[in-house]
User: What shape does this take?
Amino acid sequence: MFLIGLLGFAIMWVAHLLLIDPAYFYSYVAYVGTLKRMSILITVILGFVLFKEQDFKKRLGAAICIMTGAILISMEDLPERLTSHIELWGL
Assistant: This one.
C-alpha cells in the first residue's frame, strides 16, 4: 500500500512540474497559485483512503473552506471590489 501511495505521489509531482509550473509564465501568480490550491480536496481524500488518516470530516471541512476562498479569489476583479467596499466603510 505504501508503494501505491508513493507511486501516486510521484505521478502527481511530475504532473505538477509539467502543468502548473509553466503556467506561472503565462498568467498572474495569484491566479495560478489559487488554482493550485484546488488540489487540496484530492489530497485530503487520498490521505484518508491510502493512509487511513484520522479526522477526515474536519480535514474535509477545512479543504472545502480553502477551495471556497480559492474560487472567490479567482473570480474576476472580486478582490478589487471587496477592497474598495472595505475602504468605503472606513475599515
